[in-house]
Amino acid sequence: MSAARRFHPAIIVTTVVFAVLGAAVLIGGIRLVGLGGSPYYAVAGAWTLLVALLVAFRSRLALPTYGVLLVATAAWSVWEVRWDFWQLLPRLDVWFVLGLWLLLPWVRRGLGDASGASRRSGSAVLLVGLAVVAAVGVVGAVHRDHDLAGELPMARVAGESADAAMRPDADWTDYGGSPFGQRYSPLTQITPENVSGLEVAWKIQTGDTPGPDDPTETTSENTPLKIGDTVYLCTPHSRVIAVDAATGTTRWRFDPQIRSPVGFKHWEHMTCRGVSYHDDAKYGTAAPRTTCSRRLFLPTADARLIALDADSGKPCADFGNAGSVDLRANIGPFTPGGYYSTSPPAVTKDLVIIGGHVTDNESTNEPSGVIRAFDVHDGHLVWNWDPGNPGATAPIAQGETYTRNSPNVWSLFSVDEGLGIVYLPMGNQTPDQFAAGRTPTSETYGAGIVALDVATGKVRWNYQFTHHDLWDMDIGGQPTLMDLQTADGVKPALLASTKQGSVYVLDRRDGTPIVPIREVPRPQGAVPGDHTSPTQPMSDLNFAPPDLRERDMWGTTPLDQLWCRVRFRSLRYEGMFTPPSEQGSLVFPGNFGVFDWGGISVDPARQLMLINPSYMAFQSRLIPKEKLEKMEVGPAKSETEGVKLAKGIPYGIELSAFLSPLGIPCQAPPWGYVAGVDLRTGTMAWRHKNGTIVDSAPLPIPMPLGVPSLGGMVTTAGGVTFLTGTLDYYVRGYDVRTGRKLWQARLPAGGQATPMTYADASGRQYLLVTAGGHGSLGTKQGDWVIAYALPKGTAPVSPPPRPAGTP
């Protein structure tokens, strides 16, 4: 045998590649079988090692042997996931490429001294295997899965909400469009027929971009307001900018000059979701003030509440101390950035009502979750509702402190001034994943909706959606108020979207369910010292995902998919509400939730709900403190990155997204949808995968996998709904009837905010988008605010009249 015959580079490379891949898959496969998982990988790894051995000995049997593996792998893949292309891809891609490699002439020529006919027969078997894999891939690519095609009814069957008369149709006076939090506009100039003509009308940069000393989670989640001819917006550093609604020209700026004694980098996050507005004329005040009769309320990241003249941007001198109320009063100590309001307050005729964010999992001695109502004009404290001391609503005495570490409200309130009720989406007493020390009042008022009397702060009613919450399933979305048509007639309803996926529908007068709520048995067995609730509430209007299975694990190749399957089998998981554990538990839906602070959007006239549910798994682990102390690498280092020490409990808390070593989600896509629901029947008419991985994958390929979104939708009477919150940088418009994507525009940064819409004095309708990104999500950050509109000269369309006899 000649030297050239002995040394064949293609054979050596092929042998090494197949041997390394086979050994890795075999070892991982044996581990998976030991955990009770699929035997496929162990068999495939051993088979691949056999092919490597045959190649090393230059046997012509290598080709047909590998062809058999391809056919078997294709059959196993279809058996596991049917024709789901994105699930089939990581099961088949690497094996298919290696099959093509074996067919290359310089590889085939090195395999033995067989006759041409024998060599061709071996190649034919391999070709059959490749053809089978290719055919499976093609069928999967054309097969439509996950989406639901249908139509929503578009006839107007009800009147606008009871608060519609309190705001002009052309304005956007509150974060959610109105105090009812519907994220709906009666404007109709933009329609499914013309939305494709939207163009940039104006755009600005605020000048507020994340700096090197900012925390990682510096976010641009602002939904601006529009009142009269002015748009008001806030930035992550609590700056307020007023611009002309038709041109974007700056009218004034206000900078509160927020400060931190240790620098912002030590904060958990920095967020301003918006400002609030009060107008004396709206309420028919008998003697309008000469100054600040129209005022904005700005919550700052250093825990102040500032009142600004809406016309000049100057602080209202008659509010609090020279225009500011110190929200640190009676709160007690906290770490810098550990307490402030990330969301705009609720505003009524006489009051501005505000809560606050509290840092999660820091300690058991954090600030109170007290809700405070201040006089809208002079800023004096009118009442306070402390979930740790719920009966004492009279203003706290000087020098006293609210109950430490009681449940807080970090999201947005809704208000029904006709009923005299403010609705609170409740958080929990921290820490989130260990609740042995929670008080009876915390257990009563956490993770649900609390309705308070606007005038007194007294509890009207309370409904809890997660009992003894160990999963950070607090209520992130603003409650949505609307008049809902039911079999028993029109009822004043509250819709509460939740991280767990249920949308709870209650009578907002007394909290009784309109849509049935069932108590469902859930997994038991918390860590020592804690306990779990035997059941958890579930609404019949529910968008929770099915439980994950091993076959739902994903990746880009068989190797990282195998890693995810091993990790899945290694974690404790018994479905939704699997308790946190020392071994690590899978949390699905994760703590970003099916619905977070973006909430839902409704069309009250057509009785429709538009939603953008997300489905991402997380993993949590409780690490005993004695183990943390023995670790060579301490908390916040590489092997325990993200561990919160949670002072006051016997565990450190680790929480992270369920990702492969490549940073790819371990669960298969889709991870995000847009969907339309008929509220009269409670049925989902359509659902479509939404968004691509063009901005989150190593290669910018716009594959439509359906990605998570953070931020809500806005719906118009014109029949178009809009969303910007996806992980790819687009604003999109959808047909309300069918969910079909009608228009999209590229954004210069991530759009993790809820858009809004308004009309200028000429009747021209605008769509307003904040594009500033989100630090902890990894989307591109910036400082853009962009207004889109149809070309000038497009005829404005008046909102349709309300049907006679409707509320």
Model description:
With 807 residues, the chain is α+β, with helices and mostly antiparallel strands. The chain is built from ten helices and 42 strands. The strands form twelve sheets. It has a five-stranded mixed sheet with strand order 1-36-37-38-39, with no helix packed on it. A four-stranded antiparallel sheet has the order 2-42-41-40, with no helix packed on it. Strands 4-5-6-7 form a four-stranded antiparallel sheet, with no helix packed on it. Strand 40 (756-759) and strand 41 form a beta hairpin.
Question: What is the fold's blueprint, element by element?
Answer:
Elements: H1 3-6, H2 9-34, H3 40-56, H4 62-81, H5 85-103, H6 105-108, H7 116-142, E1 184-185, E2 199-205, E3 217-218, E4 225-227, E5 230-234, E6 240-244, E7 250-254, E8 269-270, E9 276-279, E10 294-299, E11 304-309, E12 324-326, E13 339-340, E14 346-347, E15 351-354, E16 357-358, E17 371-375, E18 381-385, E19 414-416, E20 421-425, H8 440-445, E21 448-453, E22 459-464, E23 480-486, E24 489-497, E25 503-507, E26 517-521, E27 535-539, H9 558-570, E28 585-587, E29 601-603, E30 608-611, E31 618-624, H10 625-630, E32 643-644, E33 651-657, E34 673-678, E35 683-689, E36 713-716, E37 720-723, E38 730-735, E39 741-746, E40 756-759, E41 765-771, E42 784-789
Parallel strand pairs: 1-36, 3-8
Antiparallel strand pairs: 2-42, 4-5, 5-6, 6-7, 9-10, 10-11, 11-12, 13-16, 14-15, 15-17, 17-18, 19-20, 20-21, 21-22, 23-24, 24-25, 26-27, 28-31, 29-30, 30-34, 31-33, 32-33, 34-35, 36-37, 37-38, 38-39, 40-41, 41-42
Helix pairs in contact: 2-3, 2-9, 3-4, 4-5, 4-7, 5-7
